[in-house]
């Protein structure tokens, strides 16, 4: 493909992968208005975020085999159409329970973009280019937190929070048109892939048995759940504790998005000198240190508004490095079952995000401690899984070598 096609394909894949993040970020400034209009509390509205993440987690597992069996585009159009219908349902909801349910179905549709975009990277680009491509897609995703909350804040303040979901439906309709006319088909339908439960589970089991996939999916999934702690708690922390307006919150969210944009660009240069494995280890270590400083600072009241934003910025720079590199390493071992591997990886990430966001909501205590505490937990947990997993692999590898030498001598 020429340079123009290369850029355009990455742009479409980036938009596809951005559907769910945009759907999360855009309605965050509307939480207080939604709570007031639906006569409920913010922590109840936060459950609509949790239900969205649960929907993504479940949906990705379902779409993985479908993308392998029917090819990429048919399941893609089905999921995005479901998203559009559910978005309209969200706009006309009359209670927080209905909103929670509609957000679940919205996620079940929109999450196909996450799975399909990752599978299409494996279809359309050689293995040595995938970490770079994932970085560029992450760059497109990183623009979402700059635009979505700002737009959501102004839409909520000037018109109504209901229009946020109408706008989302319109955006996804345009993405569907771009996919139809410009996106390559990718891997063709594979009729040998069975959709029987036993066969599907067998395919997933084949993926899970790959040590490299398991280590980098588990470690990367937990590490990349840290922003969900931030997303779940930030509207309450900044708007209720620090008393910023909806529009100011949108600008804060946009500023913090620069952390991820800068680091995704940095990843391009780092990959020329260092391996993805080295980048991940270093990033998780420094994020863990920053996370512990955040906990100590919030607990001891060291931070004002601006110093908290500054420390959050430093922490979030790591997200643009861990996500692309763990994605590339997780999918690298597969030429077959790519859709299933992408689904499992994405499901674990969003499942971790759902649990983390629910815990932040559950621990709500009118301080920033639940938010920063779970952010630190994600980095520390990811670092622990990475070191432990690699140590176990090295142990079994050395043990096999010893056994082979002994068998030769005997």
What does this 3D model show about the protein?
There is one protein chain. The chain is 84% helix and 0% strand. It is mainly alpha-helical and 410 residues long. Helix 7 crosses helix 15, helix 10 runs antiparallel to helix 17 (369-409) and helix 13 (276-299) packs antiparallel against helix 15. The protein starts with a helix and ends with a helix.
Quick rundown:
The chain is an all-alpha fold and 410 residues long. 84% of the residues lie in helices and 0% in strands. The protein has helices at residues 3-25, 31-37, 42-70, 73-91, 96-110, 112-124, 127-158, 162-182, 197-208, 211-223, 226-241, 246-273, 276-299, 305-316, 319-331, 338-362, 369-409.
* Radius of gyration, taken over Cα atoms and rounded to an integer in Å: 21 Å
CATH homologous superfamily (4th level) name: MFS general substrate transporter like domains
Globally, the shape reads globular
Uncertain regions: pLDDT < 50 for 5+ in a row?
Answer: none
Number of domains: 1
The SS-based structural class is mainly alpha
CATH architecture: Up-down Bundle
**Total DSSP helices:** 17
**How large is the share of residues in beta strands?**
under 5%
Report on the biggest sheet. none
Q: Which fold does the CATH topology refer to?
A: Growth Hormone, Chain: A
Q: Based on DSSP secondary structure assignment, what is the total number of beta strands?
A: 0
Give the proportion of residues in helices.
over 70%
State the distance separating the first and last CA atoms: 55 Å
The averaged pLDDT comes out at: 84
Q: What string gives the helices and strands in order?
A: HHHHHHHHHHHHHHHHH
CATH class: Mainly Alpha
Main location: membrane
Subcellular location: Cell membrane
Pfam family, one: MFS_1
Transmembrane segments: 45-64, 76-94, 100-121, 133-155, 161-183, 213-231, 251-271, 283-299, 369-393
